[in-house]
Model the fold of this input.
Amino acid sequence: MTGAFAFSLAATVAAAFVYALGLLPDPLLTALAERSKSAGIRRASGGLAILRGNAAARYAVAVIALSHATMVALMSMAPVHLRDHGATLSIVGLTISLHVAGMYALSPVFGALSDRLGRLPVIFGGQAMLLVALTVAWLSDGSQGTMTLSLIFLGLGWSASVVAGSALVSEAVEIEDRSSLQGFSDLSMNAAGALGGAIAGPILALTGYSGLGLCAMALVAVVVIWSALRLSGPAPCELS
Done:
């Protein structure tokens, strides 16, 4: 049971070394210095101020936050559901491992597709995969096979949506405001995940795992409708 913590500790220490030694000179400071030579720089705006005046930024942050809330709500309750249906700890671990692989293994592919096809198509694809995951969860009989299928699609849908949404966050503002908006986006994403996980427990107790999957479809519907409005807006090319 302690193996996962030891692995995570080693990975965190390695990541700290990458940030401390591998990002020198600081890319943001380098970019700001180059910009100041050519066009000058202004004082950065705060995250909330950016969202109030920037529709593209609001959309990008919402896509990431809602997609993350959907993923966390289903993923956090999956082990409970599996154990209730007789799954062993090894089966639970394997299922969650496959889910995490779905979250990260194809992120370079989704990044390349975002560049090639545009951000919105990849977001639509991500929401479609999330919908598949939620539908399987809704109709699931609790077996390991259906749960694994649902969680793999859940991870893939999260990955596509967050990768494309993160690209939009970066593109929505000038370089002076990127760190502020990114910080607010990360805060919103984690707060949404915490709320989704907290609410998922009572929903599971009241409606079961299938009811949780059905309720989470409301979050996907918000992103799909908002994306469709962006796509049909006067300047969808800003998001491609």
